[in-house]
């Protein structure tokens, strides 16, 4: 039997290779193609598409059916990173050790590449061959809801509004839920929906995904306090420096660790409610929540 | 019988009122809502939704059915204007006599408001009550194709690439087709598609829309040379100043006028092929091609 790591690595290799050739057969302006492909292929853990594939796998659904929606989700995630890195936003020169899109190209190109990736996400779903019209409509409706003004973009707006302000734990959770949680919810939700699962199962997985998102976030916050710069590959202490509201800041380090454990337990509980007890999905999620980089 | 002007004014009032209340019942971050609504309601001729409604009207299709797609198209058009005006792009402080989005708010907000409007366009179609799943999928597929990297965004990229360069008439036409033509094509195409028209009719209307787009563009270029600043409400001669490639520059003023007339004749011919001889759509289009502002 394959180990979870081997399964995850196999799926990740599939996702990477699909993303690497995504625009090969598509006619478009060469510069926009280059800029889109650059950020899409600069690396990354591919957490979102992996979560969707692993959820589909837990219900015996083929990778081929789900893949276009996975790729669409990664396009939307990547667009959000490109725009987030812009000088007017977080003003980052590097991401994952590589130049950010506007540094590699220029600001105008980065704005357009982000716009193009967002739009192309919808195109991928609308052109998917193995989905019914009903499935396509639902996948695009939910994608617009989780990524638009009522989802991720709304979260980024809250994030800007709250900059350098002291916020409550409730507000912190709302920002994280919108900014990063909603796309994670989409990953598990779609894996189950495209597998024809009941609303009961889908709702449990959405609650699991919400807990997973908060677990990841608290882990991120904790690593920024106690992480090893060598292992992380980035400077620690930047949250403190930027006066960012974080879980350790609001709850203390041990309070944050407790809070994380609560969400890990919630994740296990909701996955079990969805009938997922020993699938690779569960192992992958639990492993990520213990990661050190 | 109502005059064409009265019909168009009625439709425009409907579109304006729908856009003015578009987010009233929607839960989202208040600042992103304000920024989206600002640019959506700053005015404008509403050419794209009007063309779609008038096309639907020519085939006897209800306004109610087509309206969500009209509003989606205006959202996408508005997002493109917001991003186009950004400092990294055209760097415009005013549009239609009002502050541009990043001047009224700030750059980060304008980037997010554009992102949100683009995404919301897809949400509007996916949530439309009077469309079948098949119609929604086709409307979203075409919207992504005409506005994404193979359409409008690709055109903007060409536009940046060609800045301060001498280009051929062929290249000029390709830029205009992608940058502005594709959304106009979408307007007429969807008006006919949602009316259940044959592919023969839809193709004729797409050719008509392409000719309409080029007619408008040449008219724009001509007005920038010979227009009356008082009537236009903006400075003339800016194309010359910015060394932009235009029809008068490539063909001379009378050559440009001739070219425009060729496209007006093409428009009439294609509308006739689609069975549209004396509908308000035809009068509206021909009137716009003679406009002085």
From TrEMBL, chains A, B:
The keyword Metal-binding applies. GO terms for biological process: terpenoid biosynthetic process. One of its GO terms (cellular component) is cytoplasm. InterPro entries: Isoprenoid_synthase_dom_sf, Polyprenyl_synt, Polyprenyl_synt_CS, Prenyl_diphosphate_synthase. Its EC number is 2.5.1.10. It is an enzyme of class 2 (transferase). Pfam families: polyprenyl_synt (PF00348). It comes from the Bacteria. GO terms for molecular function: (2E,6E)-farnesyl diphosphate synthase activity; metal ion binding. Keywords: Isoprene biosynthesis, Magnesium, Metal-binding, Transferase. SUPFAM superfamilies: Terpenoid synthases. It catalyses: isopentenyl diphosphate + (2E)-geranyl diphosphate = (2E,6E)-farnesyl diphosphate + diphosphate. Its cofactor is Mg(2+). Belongs to the FPP/GGPP synthase family. This is Farnesyl diphosphate synthase. It comes from Halolactibacillus alkaliphilus. The lineage of its organism: Bacteria, Bacillati, Bacillota, Bacilli, Bacillales.
